[in-house]
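Page 47, continued from p. 46.
Same chain as before, 115 aa.
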Amino acid sequence: QVQLVESGGGLVQAGDSLTLSCTVSDRPGRVYDLGWYRRAPGKEREAVAIISPPSDRIIYADAVKGRFTISRDNNKKTVTLQMNRLKAEDTAIYYCYAASHPGAWGPGIQVTVST
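Result:
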């Protein structure tokens, strides 16, 4: 069973940067899509960024294109979301996801952007 743990959330001001990291615990040799999702207050959970093996093809939500960057480190078994030029509308609980069949979710981490 894949286990995911997010870190790096917090309270920042609009325009600041923040880096989220997700540690993936799984048996060696498995590869699958990794992604970040978020749920803003009063809204449905939505995909933010997904990175797919083997070529690390990346998909971003339109709302974060040009501001967020997803990357993965297979040696460290982490997936990172670099968030720049944060906006108030980026405030949400951010979840790490592994499409590991069955899929696995991290517990989530709060990101709050104040204006």
